Amino acid sequence: MCLLDFTVRWAAGRGVAVAAAHFNHRLRGEAADRDEDFVRDYCAARGVPFFSGRGDTRVLAAREGLSIEEAARRLRYEFLEETGVRRHSAAILTAHHADDNAETMLLNLCRGTGSAGLGIPAVRGNVYRPFLEITRVELEDYAAAHGLPHVEDETNREDGASRNLLRHRVLPVLREINPKAAQNMARAAGLLAAEDAVLDALAEELLARANVSQGRVLLEWAVLDSAPEAVRGRAVLGLMERACGHRKDLSAAHVKAALELEKGRECSLPYGLLARNSGAALEIFRVPPVPEAVKLAPGETVRFGSWLVALNVGGTEGKLTYRLSLSGPLEVTAWHSGDRMTLPGSRGERTMKRLWADAGVPPGQRDGLPVLRLGERPVAAPYLGVDLDFAAGETGAQVTFYTEGETI
């Protein structure tokens, strides 16, 4: 209410149009409807354009595995952005204040957040927070001085949420230590944001040297190792962001895991990404979805993801061509975690996972490899060959695995 009043006063005579946007998260039943009606009536009495939206926060949280707070935030900002676009607005203002910022900083410190994103940004895109260095007490004084009506969210008095615990129990102690604790934390957040901008610029210089091709992003270790640790981590985070298109849910733990990979090893990341240490470079790429199984008859060639599998095809043999003897319906599938094979000349049955590891096939590549299968048994696979029970001499059937662009 303070933000609306202040903005309307500031805009008067400047040729600036102001509208109010209110989102009902449908979390508090009649109380939430009361708040929406309160703002609507206030705006109607003063000729301020009013826009409302609502969404089922609990349903979104359950469907996508989000916290209630994160689901509410997503719905709210989607509504604000859509409303801003519809009105051709130049800016969206939110009323976050210094106490909100202090609570956010403390929450993020408890979660182990680094300096990047520690507090609430004063500006993010077209969203501005003009009250970020003003305390709640100062806003209460403003409301009293201008006779502004307002409605209290009754859940703010409960201690169930982490933010409320900080508000009721931690911040009062910090104010006993220093009455200006919230303002000082806001100032510290601003200084950190300025330093973050410098570090981000240095990281972008590293990222300009990255190679991007076919959904794969890589940066040479020589380039990464030449940078200070703080810049190196930001550069790796930038690689991940380029690979998946956004930064949300990519954390310092994921960056650390990627940086600590041994040569030839991989680790999983959010959004179906894999990080791999190829020895010369750190690679970040998206794992393609596992293709569906496909039946294969003699004389046919079938596609399995980026692979082609040909059975009993004449002509020049490819480098991944194997002879086999079998009968019965065949199909090409992805490998299963319990698959085992006995290769000719080996010391017995072993898991395909171990066999591929011995052949130097990295984990991220295995999921997309085709396996020729008879029922539940793996018959043949690229880089491994044919199971001993299905091996044949020079006159057996021929299966060839090859990728797009290769010929057989």
Note down, in words, how this protein is organized:
The chain has 408 residues and is an alpha+beta fold. The chain has helices at residues 2-11, 30-46, 57-64, 68-87, 98-110, 136-145, 162-177, 181-207, 221-225, 229-244, 252-259, 352-358, 363-366; strands spanning 20-24, 50-54, 92-93, 123-124, 127-128, 211-213, 216-220, 266-269, 273-277, 281-286, 294-296, 301-304, 307-311, 321-324, 330-333, 340-341, 350-351, 371-374, 377-381, 385-386, 397-403. It is 39% helix and 20% strand. The protein has three domains: 2-191, Rossmann fold (3-Layer(aba) Sandwich), CATH 3.40.50.620; 209-286, Uridine Diphospho-n-acetylenolpyruvylglucosamine Reductase, domain 3 (2-Layer Sandwich); 294-403, no CATH class. The strands form six sheets. A five-stranded antiparallel beta sheet has the order 6-7-10-9-8. It has a five-stranded antiparallel beta sheet with strand order 11-15-18-19-20, with no helix packed on it.
Q: What average pLDDT do the residues reach?
A: 88
Widest sheet: strand order?
6-7-10-9-8
In CATH, the architecture of the largest domain is 3-Layer(aba) Sandwich
How is the CATH topology of the largest domain named?
Rossmann fold
Outline the biggest β-sheet.
5 strands, antiparallel
Number of strands: 21
CATH top level class name of the largest domain: Alpha Beta
Write out the CATH superfamily name of the largest domain.
Answer: HUPs
Shape: elongated
Radius of gyration equals 30 Å
Structural class: alpha+beta
The end-to-end distance, rounded to whole angstroms, is 73 Å
Report the uncertain regions: none
Count of alpha/pi helices: 13
